[in-house]
## 1
Amino acid sequence: MTDLSQLEADLTAAVAAAGDVAALETVRVSALGKSGSVSELLKTMGQLSPDERRERGPLINGLRDRITAAIAARKAELEAAELEARLAAERVDLTLPPPPERRGRVHPTMQVLDEMIAIFADMGFGLAEGPDIEDDFHNFTALNFPPKHPAREMHDTFWLPQNEAGERKLLRTHTSPVQVRVMQQGQNKKLPGWIAQGQAPPIRVIVPGRVYRSDSDATHTPMFHQMEGLVIDRNIHMGHLKWTLDAFTRRFFETDAVVTRFRPHHFPFTEPSCEMDVQCDRSGGSIKIGEGSDWLEILGGGMVHPKVLANCGLDPDEWQGFAFGLGIDRLGALKYGMPDLRDMFASDVRWLEHWGFSAFQAPNPATGLS
Ligand code: DAH
C-alpha cells in the first residue's frame, strides 16, 4: 500500500521546487492529472472494504486537498514573481536623454555687437545709448549741419509728422547725436545719465544703436546698426584715431592680414574727416577679407569739429578729440561672408538658422575679453 506521508512529502517538495508556472503544471499533472499519483489513489478507493475506506478515504481526500491548495498557492507566488520581473523589465527609463529641441539662434548683428563691445571695452571704452527718435538739434544742428544745407538731404531722413509744438522729430540717421548728448550731459552733473553717459572729459565711449535712412540695395538697408566712438581729451590727434581703428579691425577680423585704407572725406561735424575702407574680394557671391581688389567702406571718422565741441558746452581751446561711426551689420557681413545686407532684416528663420550663432557658444577668445 502506498505510503501516504512519503507521497505527500515528495509532492510538497516537487511543488516547492517548481521554478515557473510550466514546471508547476508538470507537477500538477503528475499528481492530480488523469493518471497522476493522487488520482490513481482515489481510483483504488472503490476496491477497498467499507472499513478500509472509512479509514483511508479521509486521508487520501485530505492529501488531495492539501496538494491542490499547495499547487494553487505556489502558482499565485510564481505568477506574482513573473509579473514583478516583467514590470521591472518593461519600466520606462526616465533617465534617457530627451530628443533634441529646436533652439533659437543669436542674430549675427547681436553677435558682432557683443564682439565689438568686448574689444572696445578692452581698450577702456565705456558704453552709452540714446533715443531712436531724435530732434533736429541733436541729429543735425549741434553737429554743425547748416540749416537747409544739402548734407541734411544726403541722409534721406525719415521725418515724423509735426507735433503740437510745431516740431518735426525724426528717426535718427546716425548714432552721432549721442555724441552731443554725452558731451552735453557731462556739463550738467545733476542729470542721472545712463551707463557712462554724461561724462565730463576725458571721455571715451562707444554708442551702439539702430539708425534709419531711406535707402535699400545689397549694401544698404532702411534700418541698420552703427557704433559711434567718441574720445575727448587734451592732446588727442588723428594718429590716435588711426591706431584705434587699425587695432580694432585686426582684432575684430582675427588677422593681421587685413588691409585698411583711410580716405579724406567731408563730414560737417569733423575736421579733418576721413572714411575707412577694408580690402576684400567680392567675386563669387561671397566676401573674403584681406585679399582681392575691392574695398568696402565701414566707417567715417575724424577730429571733432571745434563748433561741435562749443555747441556741447566744451571749450575747443581746452578739449579736442576724435569720433567715428562704424557700420555694425557691414562689419558682420564682411567677417562672416554674408553677400546681401537686406537678408539680415528680412526675418527669414531659414536665414537665421544658417547665419545665426549658438546662444551657448563660449566667447571667441580672439575677440572676447582677454
Ligand atoms: N555719422 C556718420 C554717418 O553716419 C559717420 C561718422 C562720420 C561718425 C564721422 C562720426 C564721424 O562720429 O566723426 O555717415
Note: The pocket of 3,4-dihydroxyphenylalanine is lined by residues 174, 176, 228, 267, 270, 300-302, 323-325 (CB under 6 Å).
## 2
Amino acid sequence: MNEMLDCLMNKNSSCNPIWFMRQAGRYLPEFRKIRKKNQDFIKLCLNSNLASDITLQPIKRYDLDAAIIFSDILIVPYALGQKVTFVKNKGPMLSEFNMKKFLKSKPDIFLKKLKPIYKSIKKTRKKLEKNKTLISFVGAPWTLIYYMIDIKKRPEHLKKFSKYDLERIINKLTQFLCLHINQQFKNGADVVQIFDSWAGIISKKDLNRFCFEPNKKIVQFCRKKQIPTICFPKGIGKNYKKFIKKVKPDGINIDYKVNPIWAKNNLKNVCIQGGLDPKILINSNQKKIIKETMRYMKIFKNIPYIFNLGHGILPNTKPSTIEKIVKQIRSI
Ligand code: CP3
C-alpha cells in the first residue's frame, strides 16, 4: 500500500507519511559534489541520469515515503523561451520577458524542450519502490510571473502590464503548466505539487484573479485526469480557508506562519501537509526540534496529515537533523 496516496486520496488518518520540500539539494554533500561539476543548473535539471540520481539521494539516506523529482519551477519559463541562470547567492536571473514571443509559444516546442524531465521521471519511477510516491511539481502562474518579469528587483514592472495583459499571461501559462503536469503524470509521477510561493504578496482584491482562479483551473484539469494535487499558496494566512473552499485540492501544504491548530479546525475535506518552520532545524537544539515535530504530529493525529516543513529545507541544515526527525516520527 502506498501510504502517502492512501492519506492524500482516501483521507486515511492512521498513516504517517513523510517527505521534505527541497529534500534533494544543497544541504546534502552528495548533491553539492554533483553540482560542483555541473555549473549550469538548468542543464543539470535536463540531464535525465543525474536528475534521477539526485532525486534518489535523500531516499537512500532516510526512510521517506516520497521522492520529489529534481527539477525547478523555472524550467517552464526556460521552455517558453527565457534564459534562466542561477548566480551563487543571488538567486535566479531571467532574460527580459518578451510578451509577443511568449504569447506565440507552441506546445510541441515546449514539450520537446522538457523531454529530459519526463525521461528522468520514467527512470526514477522504475528505480523507486512501489510503495513510495513520486512527486512532480510546477510553479503556479503568479509565482512564475514573479520571476519572469522580475517583480523582486523591479516592482514597478508589474504596473506596466494591464490587468488584461496579466490575465492573458496567466491563462497562457496555465495551459502550458497543464501540459507539463500531464506529461509528468503520464511518465510515472503519482502526484503534482503546485507551488505558489509568492501568493503572499498579492493584494486582497487581486487574490481571486491571480491566485485562487489559476490554481483552481489547474486542480480541475488534474481532477479530470485523476492526477492527485497538493497546493502550496505560501503566505496567504487566513485566506487558506477560502483557498480550500474555492480550489478544492486533494492536499494543502501549510506554511510555517499558519497556526496548526487553526488549520486543523478550519481546513476541512483536505489532507494537510507540512507546517514546521525550517529555521527551527538550524536555530534550535535537538530537544526543541523533536518537541516541535511532535507538536505537529499530535495536533494532526486524527486527521489525514503528511509530515513536511512550512517551506523548503534551508541549505545550512544538517542531514543528521533530517534523519533524527524521520526516526522520531517512525517511532510513533
Ligand atoms: O528537492 C526538491 O524539493 C526538488 C527540487 C526543487 C528545486 N526547486 C531545486 C533547486 C524544487 C521542488 C524547487 C521548487 C522551487 N524553485 C520553488 C518553489 C518552492 C519554494 O522554495 O518556494 C521556487 C520558488 C524555485 C525557484 C528557485 N530555484 C529559487 C528561488 C532558487 C535559488 C534559491 C534557492 O532557494 O535555492 C532556485 C534554485 C534551486 N532549485 C536549487 C535547487 C537544488 C539550488 C541551485 C544551486 O545549487 O545553486
Note: The longest helix spans residues 163-186.
